Amino acid sequence: MSDGGVAEMWAPPPAYRVETGTEPLDRPARNSLGGWPCFDDDQEWPRCFCGERMALFFQLDLPDDIEFFGGEHLSVFHCAHHHDASDPVTADGRLVPRFWEAPQPPFPGSFWRVLLQRDPGVPEAEPEPAVRALPLTLRPFVDAQRPFDVHFKVGGTAAWAQGPEQYRCACGTEMVFLCQVPEYQEFGVHPGAPVQPYSIRDDAYLLFLGNEVYLLACPARCDPAAVLPVNQH
């Protein structure tokens, strides 16, 4: 078979650009910055090691054609008071058990939580109080992977800023790429919300000090929280 035939048979993985709307939400939506989080029946709103409830930065229903995770609900939480880059904790070539709760030096525990839930039910009665609720729309696109052509996206291929990173989940399964959030992606906050340390403005939050964020998830689905944020800049 010619090279052209091989190229014709190969298709890039489905990819969706995440676009932010401008009209504030006044009711629950499953695709949103901030807003009303959705949880499985046995899942509670995550809390930071400091005891404070983490802020919901964004949530999405993943399209059905996203490999391993299609149809599931992705939610990204981060403490508004504790702000640093994530630091994968490994031992014996794997992420440690319950790595999402492991100490993140200089902190004695984790300040972030990413959830992949299969059947989140009724949205919470009250919305995220700090992050402004805005609608998100997922639009399919061809993930061309051109240099510096970086998108807020789910699916596709990770556009690594400093070279690929690979991790093995504590269960032994190789983690796979799910979502990318560009550097300095801003999340607007309500007036009077706590000011995030080291943010670029008092009226905006950043994820992980504004680093590029790559979400790697366990395809074995060993736990809803088995999602690792990897940072590069």
How is this structure best summarized?
This is DUF1963 domain-containing protein. With 233 residues, this protein is mainly beta. It contains 1 helix and 14 strands, in the order αββββββββββββββ.
Structure, explained:
By secondary structure, the protein is mainly beta. 3% of the residues lie in helices and 27% in strands. The protein contains one helix and 14 strands; from the N terminus they run H-E-E-E-E-E-E-E-E-E-E-E-E-E-E. The protein has one helix at residues 3-9, and strands spanning 15-20, 32-33, 55-61, 73-78, 90-91, 94-95, 112-117, 134-140, 153-155, 176-181, 187-188, 204-205, 212-217, 227-232. Strand 5 (90-91) and strand 6 (94-95) form a beta hairpin. The radius of gyration is 18 Å and the shape is globular. This is DUF1963 domain-containing protein. It comes from Streptomyces justiciae.
